[in-house]
Write a structure and sequence with these properties.
This protein is an alpha+beta fold. It folds into two domains: 2-46 and 197-316, OmpA-like domain (60s Ribosomal Protein L30, Chain: A); 49-172, Immunoglobulin-like. The protein is built from six helices and 17 strands. The chain has helices at residues 2-13, 54-59, 159-166, 225-237, 255-277, 301-307, and strands at residues 32-35, 38-41, 44-47, 49-50, 66-73, 84-88, 91-96, 100-107, 109-117, 130-134, 139-146, 152-157, 170-172, 205-209, 241-248, 284-290, 309-316. The strands form four sheets. Strands 4-13-8-5-11-12 form a six-stranded mixed β-sheet. A four-stranded antiparallel β-sheet has the order 7-6-9-10, with no helix packed on it. The chain starts with a helix and ends with a strand.
């Protein structure tokens, strides 16, 4: 298993001769801008991590039929592919980055907890699992570490130790937890609050994807996953949106060849969104346009580079 992980990491940093689609220029305010914790697409901005008052979180009461779990990741310089996929009872919680923490409620009793490196690319939510017997109304703390081979360590720690660690940690807030407590006897101590308003995307947004392909290939290299993840995060912020992935080529080769190649490439990007980032396939479509929609002259190297592109068109789902 460690060899598989190392091979995956090696594939990320091996040089390749790339020719294909490039998002070299964004149009208007439709491009992606990443600075520090901030992510921006068009006029919409959100943060991957936020500063929080963890003592305020811990002060909130936990229902007696539930238990609260807090996972803390140490600060280190490990590669992105060593993000720790945290799962509770075979349900995904978060891909925890170094220096962050996450909190989730689960049911009382036996809980299967797992931390497994993203770099293994196997979506095995029960890998390296440990069973813990957890009581109701309590908060439990778990320390997570990943080494450079992808080996995970998940260890229960005391509240005092956790509070010292949490002083320098930030809350990871940009991913949707699939851990939904379905406890036998839920306790409702207060009237139910009004459901939060789902954000609505007022105008269609076009996102340029900075993805390059090897010549005549339609395989997305893992080094471009972080670019594609921006689309998944944007869809999370606007859960009622759908996305059309469009592929374009320059005019070299035949029209029929270019159309087929662009279709294979957008299909590959769509598959990454589904398998790596959990996007519902019903929210995605992929269309290859080949050379039919150039935005620059194909007579120059620069123009052809602008014409080789993949874009994601995000729009609100019709209510019809």
């Amino acid at each position: 298993m460690e060899r598989v992980f190392k091979n995956t990491i090696a594939a990320i940093i091996l040089p390749t001769i790339l020719l294909g689609i490039s998002g070299c220029a964004a149009l208007g305010n439709s491009g992606i801008d990443n600075e520090g914790d901030s992510r921006r697409v068009g006029n919409v901005t959100w943060n991957n991590q936020v500063d929080t008052d963890v003592r305020k979180l811990l002060a909130t009461e936990v229902n007696t039929d539930q238990t609260r779990l807090i996972f803390i990741r140490k600060n280190d310089d490990d590669l992105e592919q060593t993000s720790a996929n945290i799962s509770v009872n075979n349900r995904y919680q978060v891909s925890l980055h170094p220096g962050n923490y996450t909190a989730v409620n689960s049911c009382v009793g036996t809980n299967q907890l797992s931390a497994h490196a993203t770099g293994f690319k196997d979506n095995n939510l029960l890998a390296d699992k440990k069973d813990y017997q957890l009581d109701g109304g309590q908060t439990y703390f778990f320390y997570v570490d990943m080494d450079d081979t992808g080996k995970s360590t998940l260890e229960e720690i005391t509240a005092d130790s956790a509070l010292q660690l949490l002083e320098t940690k930030r809350y990871q807030n940009h991913q949707i937890s699939r851990v939904v407590p379905n406890c036998a006897a839920p306790v409702v101590s207060e009237p139910l609050e009004t459901a939060p308003v789902v954000p609505v995307l007022a105008e269609k947004v076009t996102i340029e994807l900075e993805v390059l392909f090897e010549t005549d290939k339609a395989i997305v290299q893992p080094e471009y996953y972080s670019k594609i993840s921006e689309v998944a995060e944007f869809m999370t912020q606007y859960p009622n949106t759908i996305v059309t992935i469009e592929g374009h080529t320059d005019s070299r080769a035949s029209e029929q060849y270019n159309q087929a190649l662009s279709q294979r490439r957008v299909n590959a990007v769509k598959e990454v969104l589904i398998t790596q980032f959990g996007v519902d396939s019903e929210r995605l479509s992929a269309v290859g346009y080949g050379e039919s929609q150039p935005r620059a002259s194909n007579e120059t190297v620069e123009g052809r580079q602008l014409n080789r592109r993949v874009i994601a068109v995000v729009e609100e789902r019709s209510n019809n």
